[in-house]
Amino acid sequence: MKPTAAHSFPDAEVVAWRLSDALLELEVSDVFFDGFSHGHAKMIFPLARPVTAMSYDHNSNQWIEETAIERLKDICEFHHKMERLYSLKGFGAESGKWLAVSVISNEAEIKW
After folding, report:
1. Within a domain: residue 65?
2. Beta strand segments in 1-97, E
3. Which superkingdom heads the taxonomic lineage of this protein's source (predicted)?
């Protein structure tokens, strides 16, 4: 199934994260769809373009482009736009920063 705005991940923990030049694959502890929890899920994003990330700086109230893509600890917000643009927002597993990871994928898939 293709991930859409109908999917939500309320405080879902990211339990696995694999990023290569061609693919972002992550596993989350829980996914909600159609009002029901479906438990553990895997999201697969074959990449049409490289993944980008930005962190939010609370002192300046600005988003800052990150040079490295940090693994997310959780997914607090999930956005799907224009059929192939995905934004995953959550806290960085290492830095604890609020991050927005952007993915462009034509063939994204979610499995539970």
Report:
1. yes
2. 7-8, 12-19, 23-28, 32-33, 36-37, 41-46, 52-57, 62-65, 74-75, 77-81, 85-91
3. Bacteria
33-69 residue pLDDT tens: 888 888 899 999 999 999 999 999 999 999 999 999 9
**Which parts of the chain fold into alpha helices (H)?**
none
The owner of tokens 């609020």 is 98
Q: Is 36 exposed, middle or buried (0-12, 13-18, 19+ CB in 10 A)?
A: exposed
CA distance 16 to 104: 20
Residue with tokens 């693919």: 23
Number of domains comprising the chain: 1
**Assigned domain for 1 exists:** no
Strand partners for 45: 24
Terminal Cα distance for the chain, rounded: 9
Side-chain-facing half-sphere of 16: CA atoms under 13 Å: 10
